[in-house]
Amino acid sequence: MELNGVPATLDQIKALALTNYGHFTSMLVEDDRVRGLSLHMQRLAQDCRHLFNVELDTDRVRAYVRKALGGSAQPTVVRVTVYDPELDLGSIGSSADPCVLVTTRPAGRGEPKPWRLQTVPYRRDDPTVKHTGLFGAMRHRRSAQREGFDDALFMNPDGTISEIATSNIGFLRDGQIIWPRSECLPGVTMRLLRQALDEPVITEPLTASDLHGMEAAFATNAATGVRPVACVDGAEWPSDHEVFSRLRELYAEIPAEHL
User: Fold this and answer.
1) Pairing between β-strand 6-7 and β-strand 115-121 as defined by DSSP bridges
2) For domain 115-254, is the CATH number 3.20.10.10?
3) Does the pTM of the predicted model rise above 0.90?
4) Domain boundaries 2-106, CATH class
């Protein structure tokens, strides 16, 4: 765990727990390469402007990530969190000097297991920003898991589908990929797949009543790639549909960028 390229102290980290104002991105690094690295850096710079009114030096961010990895060739999930340790609850309106926290964990191996999702009425604060305010999402994930599901699928106030707690969702209907039309976090993996698919991007305002007409469902996330969704509430789909192999192969063919 390094802050601006050096080991972080407890005093520097406690602002994340006590104030929790910042933003982040998570990415899978393999052999010093990342699929969608430019999009991750673009997200960090954009969110830094939005939350702190400060321009972020993404070249410096990449240098911090390289240092934290220490030349390791093992697949690693890297999280880059941008926040100002000097801001507290009483001074949150002060001018900010954001720092870059880099944390790492080993990447999971093998294909991710299919997910079972429970719909919940919820809309993230500032949904297009990947901010550190995860309480609502984690509360609904916890509730879903205690009900026997794996994660929560968020539903807007008008009953349309938006996103999973920390992933995007897509569907297959009549051989075509359908994405929910909703304000949500535009995940890097979803954006890469949309660019790579040799077909028009189709978005629709989907509701729970549309789910039974789908042939398959899947989640996208930078750490796990493409994950089958086995069910949403009472709607169930096969976890071995050929679309998953097609999407995974397509994703694997996307060139990764060097850190």
Assistant:
1) unpaired
2) yes
3) yes
4) alpha beta
